[in-house]
Amino acid sequence: MLTTHPYPLFTPHCDHDPITTIRSLLHGAAESRFYADIGRKPCLIEETGTLGPLVCNEEAAARFLRCALFSSWAHDCHGLFWWCACDFGHLDHPPYDWDSYERELGLLRADRTPKPVLAEMTGFGRFLRTLPWAKLPPRSTQAVCILTHGQDNWGAAFASFILAKQAGFDVEFQHWDQPLRDAPLYLLPSICGAQVLARRHYLALLERVRAGATLYVSLGDAMLSPFTEQFGLEVLGRRRRDQPARLRIDALPGLPELAAAAPFHLQLVPTHAAVLGREPDGSPAFTCATLGKGRILLLTAPIETYLVGRPGAFHGPGSQPFWRIYEYVSREARSDRAVSKREPNLGVTEHTLGADKRAVVAINYSPEPVEGGMQLAEGWKPAEVLYPAQATWGSAIRANDALVFTIERDGRRARRGVSSRST
Residue 352: CA atoms inside 13 Å, Cβ hemisphere, count? Predict the structure, then answer.
């Protein structure tokens, strides 16, 4: 059994944003899946919390817990414990007279009156007891994120998890030297160094592409070989950058120019790759090459490790929509998903209940309500809303809350993309 203590204060790349925004709210699920997927063992959120009143007030702590409960449940994290039962601010002996953040973390105040977090915990327990199944099946995943030598594994994994969630698909993790798992999409995010992965593992990955899979690679300072024939690009030279890379993604009309730190500028000439995006000097920055029945997409900036180190990179007016690149890369891999969405703060997991039925958990990872915005693929229709009470399929999802419902195959030919509001 593996366990996590996903406190932003103590975890790299996590103490950047408000506790009720997407990075903080996905932290527990992302770190637990990171351990569980690579460790191949169940993982439990053994201890979490908000670390007291200088981080947020009681109402925000309750919203954090509500969202974390739904998120850990949807991502098969097996359980969640809050630290801790009671406040200890009245105690004058060690360790409670040492560290300030240990004194007001309880579900109960020192006088034993309950805080709002306790109401959220008991409410979630009541919800679980109403469900028509004993255990939520594991969520379906569409991509495998491969962690490699030379990189910040956790940083690359965490950013990939968030970007995939914003783009509307789910990933699982593996280390490069583990047996390659089957998937329609493989992610090699922010690869670095001269020993990215062993040759035999790289060639096995390329064989999956030749058989029909898609491979996405974002470059740090990596040395990857073989390269030219597989990526459809010839490198004429490279230089170290003195400014951030500026990326114009022509394949995504209307997307503003994106900026990201990158160590090197590559002078690339396409041999058979299609150029999907360029830098201001015309150099290819985002490309796609066919390899056998599959595709290899290359981005010349390590956007994952860039974003994970920047406060506000995933939410708010200052964020850049890098998730649109993940949305583009995953188009074919997402074809089997029944529910799609456009709001990046809305995360959706799908859980198979049978050949013709799925459970869907839609979580609002934002401190603002989300108005609908989901669509059903052709051949699917809403069945039953399980949470919250009195909600409908088209209901807005309140701040840091969820909508849990089931869908079923429609015997009639449904119109593709029927919106939640019209349904």
Answer: 7
Q: What pLDDT, in 10s, does the model give residues 128-137?
A: 999 999 899 9
**How far is 85 from 92, CA to CA, in rounded Å?**
18
DSSP state of 414: P
| CA 343 to chain centroid | 14
Using the Cα atoms of residue 175, residue 179, residue 181 and residue 184 in order, give the sign of their dihedral.
Answer: positive
CA distances from 314 to 155, 200, 231, 307, 310 (A): 14, 35, 29, 8, 9
H/E element, 54 = none
Specify the pLDDT at position 412: 63
CA dist 240 and 242 (Å) reads 7
Q: Where are the domains of the chain?
A: 2-130, 143-333, 338-419
Distance CA 285, CA 273 (A): 12
Picking from 127, 124, 144, 170, the residue whose alpha carbon sits closest to that of residue 351 is 170
Tens of pLDDT, residues 61-90: 999 999 999 999 999 999 999 999 999 988
What pLDDT is recorded for position 114? 97
Strand partners, 357: 354, 408
C-alpha–C-alpha distance, residues 362 and 374, integer Å: 9
- pLDDT score for 99: 81
CATH 1.10.10, domain 338-419, yes or no: no
**Mapping DSSP to helix (H, G, I), strand (E, B) and coil, where does residue 406 land?**
strand
What architecture is domain 2-130?
Answer: Alpha-Beta Barrel (3.20)
User: Under 8 Å CB-to-CB from 34, ≥6 apart: which residues?
Assistant: 154, 157, 158, 161, 173
Strand partners, 258: 247
User: What whole-number distance in Å separates Cα of residue 151 and Cα of residue 220?
Assistant: 9
Helices (H), 40-76: 58-74
Give the HSE-up count for residue 414: Cα atoms under 13 Å, Cβ half-sphere: 20
* Nearest-angstrom CA–CA distance, 169 and 55: 31
Q: What is the DSSP string of 113-180?
A: PBPHHHHHHHHHHHHHHH-SSSSPPPBP--EEEEE-TTS-HHHHHHHHHHHHHHHT--EEEEETTSPP
* Spans of the chain below 70 pLDDT: 412-423
Task: Classify 143-333 by CATH class.
Answer: alpha beta
For helices 116-130 and 58-74, the axis angle rounded to 10 degrees is: 30
